[in-house]
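DM from R.C. (forwarded with permission)

"hey, sorry to bug you on a friday — could you get me a structure for this? deadline for the figure draft is monday and I only need the backbone to look sensible"
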Amino acid sequence: MTSTAPPDLLAVAARWANPDGWPVPLRFDAPQRWYARLDADDAHEVWALSWLPGQVTDLHDHGGSAGAFLVVAGVLTEETVSGGRLRPHRLAAGAGRR
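My reply, with the result:
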């Protein structure tokens, strides 16, 4: 019996870090965040998302799914819950998290 190791999702994100290679152009939409699915296979999906200053996403989780993201341009402030409090994490272009 063989098993396949799960992909390193941050490495997958890094392979998609150049918007010039995306099948759709990167967009910034003033009324709301923008998103587009770039790729999918049996092991993962790749999405591009953009936010402008002041745009937010409500606090949420992704259930039991695994994930990773990489900041392509600008700075992202992500808030996570730790010790019952929201904690901001600033991530600049090139930074990512699993």
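R.C.: lifesaver. The chain has a mean pLDDT of 90.
me: no worries. The two ends are 29 Å apart (CA to CA).
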